[in-house]
Amino acid sequence: MAIPGIPILEGKYPASMDLWPIEAKEFNRVYKFYDNLRVGRFTTTKCKKCGHVAYPPRVICPECYSEELEYIDLPTKGKVIVCTEQARGVPLGFEPPPLIHAWIDLGENSPVKRLMSRIINCPAGKLKEGDEVQFVVFDIPAHPIEVKKETKMVNRVFFAFEPVKN
Ligand SMILES: [Zn+2]
After folding, report:
1. How far, in Å, is the centroid of ligand 1 from the Cα of 105?
2. Is the separation of the CB atoms in 24 and 44 below 8 Å?
3. Residue 38 CA to chain centroid, in angstroms?
């Protein structure tokens, strides 16, 4: 794994600074969210008792405390409400700055109206209010986990949004 700007870490796994969740079932109770990402689905949890949709996904309904939740699909396209670029303090393991963040409107018919996401595959200074963006899944470095004294590498993915190319 390349660590931009820090040659001494080239090819080393920066475990102590890992910003990504461990997605394996053994370590993460919302592992289904990541399993869904792997097949290109953007999902969150809906309570089977009261119907409340929470984002990010939960293991307990924040409204009625039920643990009976199901995963539902969210829209994979939205519009930028506002965006910002982070030029300093970009954490280790991310590509060189800036990191682009946006508040995204998923539309009136979406169970989750708005959310914050990172924007990738976008040149600095180009994203603006009203731009259409789409959901995209990408690979992140695998993480070693220990299961019954065996170490195995768990493949990981994460998501962001990217500008829709017209
Ligand atoms: Zn509920």
Report:
1. 24
2. no
3. 12
Pair 121, 163: CB distance under 8 Å: yes
114-119 and 69-73: which strand pairing? unpaired
Torsion of CA 84, 88, 93, 99, to 10 degrees: 10
Q: Give 112's contacts (C-beta < 8 A, 6+ positions apart).
A: 44, 53, 55, 74, 106
Do residues 153 and 141 make contact, with C-beta atoms less than 8 angstroms apart?
no
All residues with CB under 5 Å from ion ligand 1: 47, 49-50, 52, 61, 63-64, 66
Query: Helices (DSSP H) in 86-151: which residue ranges?
Result: none
The phi, psi pair for 66, rounded to 5°, reads: -70, 145
pTM of this structure: 0.87
Beta bridge partners of 135: 161
Residue 3: pLDDT over 60: no
What sign does the dihedral 82-158-138-35 (CA atoms) show?
A: negative
User: Residues 106-148: pLDDT tens digits?
Assistant: 999 999 999 999 999 999 999 999 999 999 999 988 888 888 8
Counting other chains too, the contacts that 61-69 makes at CB distance below 8 Å and 24 or more residues apart are: 69/45
